[in-house]
From TrEMBL:
It is a multi-pass membrane protein. Keywords: Cell membrane, Membrane, Transmembrane, Transmembrane helix. GO terms for cellular component: plasma membrane. It comes from the Bacteria. It is found in: Cell membrane. The chain crosses the membrane at residues 294-314, 346-372, 384-407, 428-448, 460-485, 512-531, 883-905, 935-957, 983-1006. InterPro entries: ABC3_permease_C, Membrane_comp_ABC_pdt. The keyword Transmembrane helix applies. This is ABC3 transporter permease C-terminal domain-containing protein. Residues 886-1001 form the ABC3 transporter permease C-terminal domain.
Length: 1019
């Protein structure tokens, strides 16, 4: 036993480089297996915490309304205590109750208003206050925008109907975004203007933001006139688990829905919109997907490590051939020979197991601390221990295989120390054919599959399978090609080429490195490609949900929001208004696209090759709508029409932030005449969007002939661009557009040929060169036609559209929406946008005066691009894919380490071959050239095969997986494109590394190639 131990130690020391490499690779394989399950559990927990932290309070928290009972509640303090007692405690990780006092709504300022206070009177500490903070009952703060819009000032008294009574405005306020947790829901401070449903006539009154006051104001009101709002935020500590969410879900499910419960001191009813169930389902879905995505990364790392380990153990066993031959001559039995052969590998394995455990846990700890939420505890699931043990057993199997291959060598070959090349065994050939057939079958199934979905078994197997097949193919092609070359080119003039080809065909040690290095390169390319593509996809998803650095929700309708952004940001550098428009067919994102390039987070992969500036230009009006500024507008007309009544002209004037206004001018008799009308609303500017020519009876008449408009004036001054350059055309939506047979613009005159054909019609004109079909950016999955039987429309207007650009995604709607320009849509057209959500997109560097202006109008930050992207980047699947980047680096490092060790092991044999050539007179340069050419062929074929296999696997897999959690139809699809610059960079890096290895090996080979080398005992 002591002799065996001494022999093992002496052998390990003699082959120190191989021993160190074997320990390193085995430790990395075991560490990778341990890392996978730990990281999978950790990323799920991290995503859970991040997702809950960044979800709106309304979706994760609980909200109640407590109505105090007049018979048992005497003060607001009593009511608050009763409300807290009724809602405190219970299951779930919820914070202590936050309370506020809210009054009923009563008529004021032409709308309905309410009072709000915090029980501790500290509301001002969480608001940006201008003026004084309320101190006495009846003193209030008003939202800054409401104060201006209602033409009031600090110090004014506002009358509110009973039971609230008069209040005195002592200051104004804004709600900072940082106060969201305190107020639970910033949307409660929105101010909504009066709205009228154009179809139903239903009027929604003006609702100013709450008047903030002191608790004492509620003490003077009847108990029935106010209530206590109770909010409880969900708290997500770093050690929160998916099991804890079950408690939170149980608490949310236990809330009464639309019914009040009798509690001490009053009645308690739930007003929560809690959706913790959907979030929990999403987390569990991500957990499953993360587990599926981590498996191939870990598997590929383990397989490459084992393949390289087999190569190194075989090299070590080859070096032990004389030792094994001597043992055989001494009469050792078969069992003793196996014991001797396995003694060194088993010793290395015993050293590798604890090292691998330390590597895996240490790497997991580093990744958790670096990538995941702070304070997250490091899990150690039993699956990690099981996986590490399985890889250790696999390493033993690799050692047995390596030793068995050496023990099969005949005694004569063991004594000579030379391994002759052998033909591939029948079993090996069958295995190779099976691998090729499996690769082809998986490729065909993936390329002929359906829509993208979650990763399945084929996605896990394909990258590894292609890597192995590419390595086997490269090995056989390289060796077979070299053999053919040496047989067919014996009379070649290039001695270096012949020597290199003969060395490749006869030295198996050189070609054995092809398989593991090819697999390593393929998996590296695949891992880097998937990681990069997933990052680009998440950026695309984030830009769809948050199309700008900051997204504000506006309580104003679209026309007033556009006016607000133009007022606050007249140069269009920071703000942009956007809304969603539903029709009986498509759904549109309506945007002020003149600001699209400067404000939005438009993604290049949405419209490859088409920059955002070109997108905005394609959607914009092709002519400038005339701008008129004044109080009185008039036109000069040369009327040459045959008409059965007087001719009138109606002007449509678009007022920013207001409805369209009309000015009726006429009558215009035969010949030239001028008429003017009052337009006081144009004192600050109007857009002359359209003109209608007709008679007095409902603006209809029978007309035929030519009408020439020779001048447009405002307050007696000609309007610049009123005719020339205004793009006057027949109104696209006019039912009588055929009545206008021709329009000619010449300088400052506009000639309109009209022929009603005997029907009583009107002639309608529009400026801006409006096309018949409005240009839109079409999402790849969007429809441009109306859907029969759709009754969810918020717009009664239908219009033809022309998809001028197809995009992978459009803001807010993704691949299922259309993007249209607001000016293009609303010029000479009335759009009803009831129930449409309106947003303001803003740059992150918008000045404080601009953001304060939005807050004054009750706008609140809905989300930011950074927040959405951070949530996506912290998703369980996204975090799991980061492991691919780690795998790409580790597998490449392992391949390089294996290559260096293998090259170093081959160096003595190469020196002997080079010395033999030098003895017979071959020049030094030819010997070095032969070595370089040998490495160039072997490593070049390895690099090409690895890059091709990795790129193919990346392309195929990306076509069939989602690479993330698809929330809804607005999620853009993954673009399965190969990143050519990244591939070229990897190719250049591979060529540089392999070229360096070839030159260094050639230099070392020639340097040590002396005649004396032939007399050395290389073993």
């Amino acid at each position: 036993m002591r002799t065996m131990l001494a022999t093992v130690i002496r052998g390990l020391r003699a082959r120190g480089l191989l021993s160190a490499g074997s320990v390193l690779l085995t430790a990395l394989a075991i560490g990778s297996a341990v890392l996978g399950p730990i990281f999978q559990v950790a990323v799920t927990s991290s995503y859970l915490v991040t997702r809950l932290d960044e979800a709106p309070n309304q979706l994760t928290g609980l909200t109640w309304t407590f109505d105090p009972s007049p018979g048992t509640t005497r003060t607001t303090y009593d009511a608050v205590q009763h409300a807290v007692d009724a809602t405190d405690g219970g299951p779930g990780p919820y914070a202590a109750p936050q309370t506020s006092l809210e009054s009923v709504r009563a008529s004021a300022l032409g709308g309905i208003a309410m009072l709000l206070a915090t029980p501790d009177g500290g509301a001002c500490a969480h608001l940006e206050v201008t003026g004084a903070c309320p101190q006495q009952p009846g003193e209030v703060l008003m939202l800054g925008g409401d104060l201006r819009d209602t033409h009031h000032a600090i110090g004014d008294t506002i009358t509110i109907d009973d039971p609230l009574g008069d209040v005195v405005v002592v200051g104004s306020y804004r709600v900072p975004p940082s106060a969201e947790d305190y107020w639970f829901d910033l949307g409660r401070f929105a101010s909504t203007p009066r709205r009228t449903d154009e179809r139903t006539g239903v009027v929604t009154p003006y609702t100013p933001a709450p008047f903030v006051t002191v608790p004492a104001s509620f003490g003077e009101l009847p108990v029935s006139a106010w209530s206590v709002r109770v909010d409880r935020r969900l708290v997500a500590p770093a050690d929160l688990t998916i099991a804890d969410i079950d408690d939170a879900q149980a608490a949310a499910d236990a809330l009464p829905i639309e019914q009040a419960a009798e509690v001490e001191g009053g009645r308690l009813s739930s007003t929560s919109i809690n959706d913790i169930r959907a979030i929990a389902a999403e987390v569990r879905a991500q957990q499953r997907t993360a587990k599926a995505s981590i498996a191939p990364a870990v598997l590929s790392l383990v397989l490459v490590a084992l393949a390289l380990l087999l190569r190194l153990l075989m090299a070590a066993a080859d070096l032990r051939l004389p030792e094994l031959a001597l043992a055989s001559l001494r009469g050792l039995s078969r069992r003793q020979m196996w014991a001797l052969g396995l003694s060194e590998p088993i010793t290395l394995l015993l050293l590798s197991v604890p090292t691998g455990a330390v590597v895996g846990i240490g790497l997991a700890l580093g990744l958790v601390r670096w990538w995941l939420v702070p304070g997250l505890p490091l899990p150690l699931p039993w699956t990690a221990i099981l996986a590490g043990g399985a890889v250790a057993l696999a390493a033993i199997g690799v050692a047995v295989l390596a030793v068995g291959l050496v023990l099969r060598v005949s005694l004569s070959e063991q004594l000579t120390g030379v391994r002759r090349p052998r033909e591939t065994s029948r079993t090996g050939l069958i295995v190779q054919l099976v691998l090729v057939a499996a690769a082809i079958a998986v490729l065909v199934s993936k390329l002929s599959g359906g829509k993208p979905g979650d990763p399945d078994v084929t996605d896990l197997v394909l990258p590894v399978l292609l890597a192995v097949v590419a390595g086997v193919a490269a090995t056989r092609i390289t060796a077979g090609g070299a053999t053919w070359w040496t047989r067919a080119r014996r009379r070649t003039r290039s001695l270096a080429s012949f020597v290199a080809a003969r060395a490749i065909s006869r030295r198996q040690e050189g070609t054995l490195v092809i398989l593991p290095v090819t697999a390593a390169i393929a998996i590296c390319v695949f891992g880097a490609g998937v990681y990069g593509s997933a990052a680009q996809w998440r950026a695309s998803v984030a830009a769809t949900a948050a199309p700008a650095p900051v997204v504000w929700t506006s309580p104003l309708p679209m026309n007033r929001t556009v006016a607000l952004t133009h007022t606050l940001d007249p140069d269009g550098r920071y703000l942009m208004a956007v809304s969603r428009l539903n029709t009986l067919g498509p759904t549109y994102t309506v945007a002020d696209t003149s600001r699209l390039a400067r404000v939005s987070s438009w993604q290049e992969q949405w419209t490859p090759g088409v920059p955002v500036e070109q997108v905005a230009a394609a959607l914009a009006l092709k002519a400038d709508v005339p701008r008129v500024t004044g109080r009185r507008i008039g036109i000069t007309v040369d009327q040459q029409l045959e008409s059965d009544s007087d001719v009138y002209v109606r002007l449509r004037l678009g007022v920013e932030g207001d409805r369209a206004h009309y000015v009726f001018l006429g009558p215009f008799g035969a010949g030239t005449s001028s008429r003017a009308g009052a337009a006081p609303y144009c004192s600050k500017g109007c857009d002359l969007e359209g003109m209608t020519i007709g008679g007095p009876a409902a603006l209809t008449a029978q007309m035929k002939g030519t009408l020439t408009i020779s001048g447009i004036e405002v307050d007696g001054t000609p309007v610049t661009g009123g005719i020339d350059g205004a793009g006057w055309v027949r109104a696209p939506d006019s039912s009588a557009a055929e009545a206008v047979t021709d329009i000619r613009s010449s300088g400052d005159s506009l000639e309109v040929d009209i022929d009603s054909g005997g029907d009583r019609v009107i002639a309608q004109l529009a400026s801006g060169a409006l096309p018949t079909a409005l240009p839109v950016v079409k999402g790849v999955d969007a429809s441009t036609s109306a859907q029969a039987g759709s009754f969810g429309s918020t717009s009664s207007t239908e219009f033809a559209v022309d998809p001028v650009i197809t995009a992978q995604s459009v803001p807010f709607l993704g691949p299922n929406g259309l993007l249209i320009d607001y000016k293009m849509l609303t010029t000479d057209r009335t759009i009803y946008e009831q129930k449409s959500t309106v947003y303001v997109l803003a740059r992150s560097d918008a000045p404080k005066s601009v953001t304060q202006g939005l807050q004054d109008r009750g706008a609140s930050i809905s989300t930011t691009f950074a927040e959405v992207q951070h949530t996506l980047d912290q998703g369980a699947y996204a975090l799991a894919l980061r492991l691919y980047a780690v795998v790409a680096v580790l597998v490449l490092l392992m391949a390089l380490a294996g290559l260096f060790v293998s090259t170093a092991v081959q160096l003595p044999a190469r020196r002997r071959d080079a010395a033999a050539l030098r003895v017979v007179g071959v020049p030094r340069g030819s010997v070095m050239s032969a070595v370089i050419r040998e490495f160039a062929v072997v490593l070049g074929g390895t690099a090409v095969a690895g890059l091709a296999a990795g790129t193919l696997a990346q392309y195929v897999v990306l076509r069939t997986v989602t690479l993330g959690y698809v929330e809804n139809l607005s999620t853009p699809a993954l673009v399965a494109a190969v990143d050519v610059p990244r591939l070229l960079l990897l190719t250049a890096a591979t060529a540089l590394v392999f070229g360096t290895v070839a030159l260094a090996s050639a230099g070392l080979t020639v340097r040590g190639a002396r005649g004396a080398t032939l007399r050395e005992n290389a073993r």
